[in-house]
Fold this protein.
Amino acid sequence: MNFKINRFLLLFFVTICASLSSCEKEIEVDLPDYDDKIVIEGTIENGSPAMVIVSKSIPYFATLDLETLMNDVFIRDAVVTVSCDGQSEQLHFTLCEDSPVYLAYVGRNIIGEPNKRYDLRVEYDGKVYTSSTTIREPFHLDSVWLAFLNEKDTLPTSRIQLTDNPATHDYYQFRIKVHGKKLHDRLWVTSMPVAFDDATFSGQTVNYEILRANPSALFMATMTDEEKQEYYRITYRKGDTVYLKTSMLDYDAYQYWSAMTYQLAIGQNPFMSPAPVPCNITGDNVIGNWCGFASTVDTLYYPDDSRNRSSRR
């Protein structure tokens, strides 16, 4: 009886599998027509000149290599101007270590200062794009330290304590650079979430764990597996020097970076639906952001001497 039942189940399973396989069908998906856009990404920070990258968007499934970037993506003949307090400066297209792609329009004379407004104007192909941003008052953390799970933990993260100003509505962003034996960040890497406001802790003293989010995958093609493992780590190693940048944003910049949290979270998954990202630039068929940062930097050391297990500002 058991043999008969098991044989019946086996035959039933085979029949179901055959039915499912016979239902397979190739389908063709018509992708919507691609709409070219101008992409403008600009920043100005207290103590630094403006940096602006002007480029063209490309289809999601397009091949992206150095030749494509140089010939089809980067726009090198735009006229980019930044103005503040009646002074204007035309930015120059040049090599830039702070640019993710090593090239950008960079200023020289107008340096970011707190509590000032900065106007951006980009002229390209007969069209004009404009935007404005402000640099707020820089904010200082109460303290920052390496956080270990227990006495045996050797891979700490960073934690911060801050006291929020109850008189203002504040928008925060944290970015990290790690300089260690095997990892030397060239660019600032955002934390997760990328930006948040004080809606849930206005006027309070709170502490948070600040995690280094996924950095750009643009240059991963030339990395070894070991280098990739170091590049994507969120914890710190002995010998690391960790720089933590705390930035205050204005509302428009917060809206942009807050939306970017979702984009970074889904990564390069083509099956996730991208959410719209706000743009504070005025013009036809343009996306991007012009952002002012009011920033301070704290430094953490994780010495090779394991007896010294934490650092505090």
